[in-house]
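Input record (one chain):
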Amino acid sequence: MKLYHTGTVAIPAPDIRRGRINADFGQGFYLTPDADFTYRWARGDAVVNEYELELSGLAVHRFERSQAWFDYIFHNRRARDTLAADVVIGPIANDTIFDTYGIISSGYLKPGDALALLMIGPEYTQVAVKTERAAAQLKWLGAGAVDGAQARREALRAEMAEYDRQFAAVVRRITEQ
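The corresponding structure, as predicted from the sequence alone:
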């Protein structure tokens, strides 16, 4: 599985304990198989690290956008990771990449309404390498600077505008109930 991680430096040996413990899939090193996503969301001064992950022999848990995914990420945001997996693969919660003003995880919404907001917009995949065993099977292929950032930023602005439109429509529907 070819994966990408964007940062400010090359990371040949990622530390799985360095990430936030309350991230969507709990503590681990986060990557994505979506190169286009990686470059579109990268700043102009970013470095994109490329990796290859061998999944054989690892406990892998896969999520789709669903109630189980929602429950798992909301438990993890409270630092309560209960899943025994070396690698977790699933959708990125859109409120971590789009500005939702903290509405989704505020606690003021019913869980069904929060899930409805997380279901809108594009679905990007994240891969969390959570154990040393999985990290040992993550091979660094190299790193390079981001180029062509301006064209990608224009595409991103259009995507963000469409997300904001969809988000506002769902919020209106929720508040009218």
